[in-house]
Amino acid sequence: MKILLTGATGYIGKRLLPVLVHKGYTVVCCVRDKNRFSPPEPLLKNIEVVEVDFLDEKTLENIPADIDGAYYLMHSMSTSTEYEEMEMKTARNFRETLDKGKTKHVVYLSGIINEENLSKHLASRKAVEEELGKGKYHFTTLRAGIIIGSGSASFEIIRDLVEKLPVMIAPRWLNTRCQPIAIKDVITFLDATLFEEKTYDRNFDIGGPDILTYKEMLLGFARVRGLKRRIGIVPVMTPKLSSYWLYFITSTSYRLATSLVNSMKVEVVARNDEINHILDVTPMDYETSLRRTFSAIETNEVVSSWKDSLISGRINQSLSAFINVPTNGCFVDQRVRKIRDRQRTLDAIWRIGGQTGWYYASWLWKIRGTLDKFSGGVGLRRGRTHPDRIDPGDSVDFWRVLYASRKEGRLLLFAEMKLPGEAWLEFKIVDDKLYQTATFRPKGLWGRMYWYSVVPLHHIIFRGLIDQLVK
Fold first, then answer.
1. Which CATH entry fits the domain spanning 2-307: 3.30.70.100, 3.40.1640.10, 3.40.50.720, 3.10.20.30?
2. Least confident of 71-75, 194-198, 316-320, 417-421
3. In 131-246, beta strands by DSSP E
4. Which bin fits 129, alpha (ψ -120 to 50), beta or left (φ > 0)?
5. For the whole prediction, is pTM greater than 0.70?
6. Each residue of 146-190: pLDDT tens digit?
């Protein structure tokens, strides 16, 4: 059977893909950019990859007509302030495309929306559900609240807050109740729901056994980590201040922080656990999900992270638009060093950023990251998902990976920090030499002034960096 998987490069999609393949399905992966889709090699013979942008009707022709089942795992919450219109158009195009074929069942992962006073985000999700439900296929919605798992936005925010702040003066929405669920259970529900007739044309809330306030979730996290934390609630903190509070303390973007704050004011508690009995699934409790998550982190088994989504940075289109480094009108800092051991040099390049750092003058990189954060950029807080594996589309601190090939000995990064222009950083091994090239395309006079003002720092940082890489 052939299954259409939208959001194949996303946090949920990456984890669901191997489960579907192992069940014997042929999985058609919808991606906007093939350059940033790097599935594990053992899965390749069981998948088809099609480039589709559901906002561009011309690309819908790439979807095969013989789809038996489909997963709708797309959302636009952080890509635009007008995401409601984008989400509706995406859902409409998806429905109309599948209605032309023989699709039997569509499963949609949404958020728990059993409140009359919905946030803008949850109201949009409900509207998408209603649009998708108009299709000729059978339709099932699974509604989840806070998802706990390595790399999830919710988990990373909780982690940042608890591990950075011994004492918190927090907004009053920390008293809002929610029902967290482990990512492993979300994947189990998604897998078991497809083609299960008892779920046809219905919607279900999925959640773990614990109903907690956000404050209780933070304290529970601290307990699992063996930390003592105190939390005070301030009733006067506005949504805007709350958004800034999340933005400066955690690794989330300001736009995502704003959407999360608006959603966190609304209770997200499951109506019942009927779906657990239909599918014979027993979700794990909150503390167990935390312990499993840290087990995955400690063994470097993080499959996907929200930070690697393009919504976490500046690029809101395909990587292809940036992969060809310009030359005209650009400033270039290129350095060449002879290497003694190709493999060791590659290993060093592939570990760059994150916990490893930038090898030389780390304090200067940290200052640049702090300045970027206070100017509304991503800073260094995103780190990297895996310590020594890099795929196109991944985030590496305030860079985005455009191209990565160990075989070619080439890594190309695009800057996502706030700049008066655009910047690329490339590492390339040719024969026995390492070429390190920083390219900056300035925007206007200010861009040129910026480049000349940082030339002395570049001389220190880039010279030190390449010297350390070849040592």
1. 3.40.50.720
2. 316-320
3. 138-144, 147-148, 167-171, 177-178, 181-182, 202-206, 212-213, 230-234
4. alpha
5. yes
6. 899 877 777 778 887 888 888 888 777 788 889 999 999 999 999
